[in-house]
Design goal:
This protein is of the alpha/beta class. Helix content is 49%, strand content 12%. It contains 11 helices and 7 strands. The chain has a 7-stranded parallel sheet. Helix 2 (23-34) links the parallel strand 1 (13-18) and strand 2. Helix 6 (101-113) crosses helix 8 (154-170). It starts with 5 loop residues before the first helix and ends with a helix.
């Protein structure tokens, strides 16, 4: 397989800012990624954009701002992505893999070189990523700042990740991984599978007093960690459909 160019790799990696409160942070983030040879910025329900403060703090990275799509929610912004990494300082209800910025950059680069769409996701300045948002990520990215003064400005966090991606690109390529015959499932395809899984668990009365929310969160982590491809998802959908059919027949018989 031919090694993709740095520009082609960069084109596969997007920085997603979720519910950004201050437009100046959007501009500063655009500047941060542009200085590192990256250019893709996506916005989810920003409080104010376009805005003069964003343009001012972009310091010339206007092309990044002009090309930044705006999505109503995170699922829409990452629908076509096969790797989603969420920057967060908080640990959540359900344990998930936690990696540092350098490991995140290495994974992002490997996925991008493999032709996959990658999203590096950052939450609101005050609240960070919500539980419903972080659960859509394959791993949580932690920046090991000083516990006594751990708060990073949004644009600073973006700069750290962008720098690590840049260094990974400049370090040169390790051998390309062997490509699967079927492409990895996208975030939208995984969401459809999780909805089907949740319906099926209800249909077969799986929960029996157990918390449906906790079980679904744990199953999400399991399947996100496995990173199934599209063919594997089709097989799983088939299993769920047969389970629903058998459950329906059982209910009809009992009725």
């Amino acid at each position: 397989m031919t090694e993709p160019s740095p520009a082609a790799i960069a084109e596969k990696i997007r920085f997603v800012l979720v519910r950004t409160s201050h437009p100046g942070n959007i501009g500063a983030a655009a500047r941060a990624i542009r200085t590192m040879g990256l250019a893709r910025l996506s916005l989810v329900a920003p409080h104010a954009f376009p805005h003069a403060d964003a343009i001012a703090l972009a310091a010339g990275a206007n092309d990044v701002l002009e090309n930044a799509p705006i999505a109503p929610d995170l699922p829409a912004a990452i629908a076509d992505c096969q790797l989603v990494l969420g920057a967060t300082a908080r640990r959540r209800d359900v344990p998930m893999e936690e990696i540092d910025a350098r490991e995140a950059a290495a994974r992002a680069l490997a996925a991008a070189r493999d032709g996959r769409e990658v999203a590096l996701v950052f939450g609101n300045e005050r609240t960070g990523l919500e539980n419903d948002e972080i659960k859509r990520c394959h791993a949580a990215v932690l920046i090991p700042s000083d516990p006594a003064f751990a708060s990073l400005n949004l644009a600073q966090a973006v700069q750290v990740l962008a720098y690590e991606v840049r260094m990974a690109v400049l370090a040169g390529a390790s051998p390309l991984p062997e490509q699967k015959a079927d492409p990895p499932a996208s975030a939208a395809e995984l969401d459809a599978f999780f909805e089907h899984l949740e319906r099926t668990l209800e249909a077969i009365e799986f929960h029996k007093g157990r918390s449906p929310r906790t079980i679904m969160l744990r199953l999400r982590r399991l399947y996100l960690r496995a990173q199934p491809d599209q063919r594997e998802l089709r097989v799983l959908h088939g299993i769920l459909s047969d389970s629903e059919r058998i459950a329906s027949l059982a209910r009809a018989k009992d009725g």
